[in-house]
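Researcher: Please translate sequence to structure tokens.
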Amino acid sequence: MVGIADSTSGVVDPDGVDVGAAFDRKNREGTVGTADPGAVLAAEYDVLVEATPTTLGDAEPGFGHCRRALDRDRHVVLANKGPVAERYRDLRALERDSDGRVLFGATVGGAIPVVSTVEAFGTGDVTAVRGVLNGTANFVLSRMTAEGLGYEHVLAEAQDLGVAEPDPSFDVDGIDAALKCTILANLLTGGDPEYTLDDAEVEGIRDIPGSALELAAEDGRTVKLIGEATAEGVRVGPRLVGANDALAVSGTRNIVRIETETAGDLAISGRGAGGPETATAVLADVDRLR
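Model: Translation complete:
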């Protein structure tokens, strides 16, 4: 690793950054180094790992970082959903004009190999991708169902446990799942048509009453926040699924069902978010570039 940047500083060493020292400095002083973040983008490197926070609309600054790397014929590995969810066609155009490649397995499903599996089958063979793609929302619904607790109580519990952010809107309003499904829809269409979050039909879980979960349980079913990506578009919202259905995972687990013409339905389940999980997906993409 020859460079690391945070939002206000950077550290560059062509012989290899002392990562431990950089993080010690970050914990002690709030910065990873004394250089400007731009110095990292200007360094000599093979792969840029873009892990800035996801932003909507113009997907900046992440998209600009990708542009700078691809203009220099460098590879890009994305953990940031913004460039592929909001500017997929622009990103692919930059890739076509570059000797660098763009990989983004970490943007959907954490360590679950959703993107790579879709790519392995070929987008012409995959007809739809559906599943539980947000661990926070799934934790809340699972606890409400199992314990008969109200939404606000369970959300507070999730925040105390670190499962939910202080502002949980992206998760409980379905935005995070919709971004992931938008990425998958663009992968299925090749960006023609191109989808963004604005094109998605999105409904969250805030307004689901406990009584609805009780009625579902009496009928042998449960409620899950299900995301769906097809070549025709993106939908995310609460759906009734059978209590024994593969999609009825509990806690923070994710599950994705990939519907194919040749192999039928494939189900992949596991940890869909978290630092180690995202890092695993990022490093898997880096390894593919070797």
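Researcher: Any highlights?
Model: Residues 20 and 280 are 19 Å apart (CA to CA).
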